[in-house]
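Table S5 (text form). Sequence records supplied for joint modeling of the two-component complex.
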Amino acid sequence: MLRLPEKQEKAWLMSLRGLQVVEIAEELGISKQAVSMYLKQARAKLSEIFLEIANLLDLSIIKMNVKSGILIGDIKQTGERVFIFYTFSNGPIAIFESVLKVKKCSEDTNCMKVVRFYKELLGINHDDVFKALKSILKYAETI
Amino acid sequence: MKFNVYVDLDYWLEKLLGLFYLILALIIILIYEPLSVFNQVSIFPIIVSPVALAISIIFVVIFILYLDFNYIEITINELRFKWFKGEKSVRIEDISEFHQLGKLGSMAPLYKIDKVRVFTATTAIINAGIISTFLLPRISRILYVVFMIMLLITIGSVILPARIGRKVFAGLIFSDVGYFIGAVLIDRLHLDLSLSMILILLVLIASFSIGYYLGSSKRWIYDYIIIRALINNRERTIILNGRVRES
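The corresponding structure-token record, covering 390 residues in total, follows.
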């Protein structure tokens, strides 16, 4: 299963939101040591998940940031760029760069799940989905 | 697998190069002695020459030392690379970031993606600006002003999206060098204005094209791979530079 265990996922999300270990420990009602352990395990598991996805999609990895849950790669067979985002409660979601050209990101797609997750996380105010998506992909490249 | 690439840790070489450019600029300023206008005493050229020589030797030694950090070995569990007299190792599970700079940046600006090269090149440009302040106005003030504008445009090009920005940036750096050489040539050859303009234009087009081509070619300019990982419980940055060739 390409998902983090529940507690690891919660700790990882809070760390992504910029919370310190002490704050996460208070929020989850566990010790600081336990939070550090969850974060370490979450990062190791995310590395595993990303490498598995890269293998499945036949990707050459361009960037991997397990703290932010982002993987960027080129599909070896077509050369197309893919952005993989690990999102809370949905797990990893792939966004193909061509989505910006074909402009298809309707309400029920994985693409929209990524937009919603990052709009909240980064405080993006664009109403236009594709402008928001462009900001998210830009963020993925620079983080 | 063992790869022949140059390894740097925590931007060690970039910091040294930045320092070297700064010292070089300072030496040039001292040689031209702006203060001697007031006190009419000329001491610096005598002191500066041996100091400049000593500093240059130190930096050459450091650079030769850097060339010795020249491999990384990747196994299932860890990365091992040469660092000073020994080796450092990183466990694969401790890697938190991996970036291949040359392929990143279809949307994000160059200065955010390729910090290593932008930093080194920008310090060199600033250094060239300082040095030319003492040289070019003696030839022509207009040539100097145009050169300064060109340097500013070069620095400004780092806000372009990295995919196109790295080619334009390389092209503009080459144009700056070409322009500087062209300006000195015009002065030495005592050409008339129209001929000078044609010569400068040709030099600019040729040098920009060469830089643009080199910036887009992986054959001449090696790519960088940046890895962030925990080494002895401290997060550190490993910078790999070179053409990946297994040995």
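Note: The domain at 1-103+224-247 of chain B is CATH 2.30.29 (PH-domain like).
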